[in-house]
Amino acid sequence: MRRKLMEILACPICKHHPLDLHVFEENDEIEKGVLICSNCSRWYPIIETIPHMLPDDLREEKDDLEFMKKFKDKIPGETLEKGKPFHI
């Protein structure tokens, strides 16, 4: 994901802008990271440069929880504990 995309990305649920960006791995683009909506507490993973910004009912709990566990040392504690739609 290119950083410039942050100028237009908004939470697909509550439409809040801007989202908080936490980068885990970056080369020319953001390879891995997470976008967090400070308004509704939803989080969206960035995997292989693609922000996965799906509505709650289309998200895979198993995949999201695996992502959270893998990067739990890099995801803010509040999101780990209270993030929507899933948390650990």
Quaternary structure state of the chains depicted? single chain
Residue share in helices?
A: 10-25%
Global shape: globular
Give the ordered list of helices and strands. Answer: EEEEHH
- Uncertain residue ranges: none
Instruction: Give the distance, in angstroms, between the N- and C-terminal Cα atoms.
Output: 26 Å
Q: Into which percentage range does the β-strand content fall?
A: 15-25%
Q: Mean of residue pLDDT?
A: 97
Compute the number of strand runs.
Answer: 4
User: What Rg, in angstroms, do the CA atoms define?
Assistant: 12 Å
Count of helix runs: 2
Class by SSE composition: alpha+beta
Strands side by side in the biggest sheet = 1-2-3-4
Largest sheet: 4 strands, antiparallel
Give a description of the structure.
The chain is α+β, with helices and mostly antiparallel strands and 88 residues long. It has one domain (3-82). The protein has helices at 61-70, 77-82, and strands at 20-26, 30-36, 43-47, 50-51. The protein has a four-stranded antiparallel sheet with strand order 1-2-3-4, with no helix packed on it. A hairpin with a 6-residue loop joins β2 and β3 (43-47).
Task: Name some characteristics of this structure.
88 residues, alpha+beta, 4-stranded antiparallel β-sheet, 2 helices, 18% helix, globular
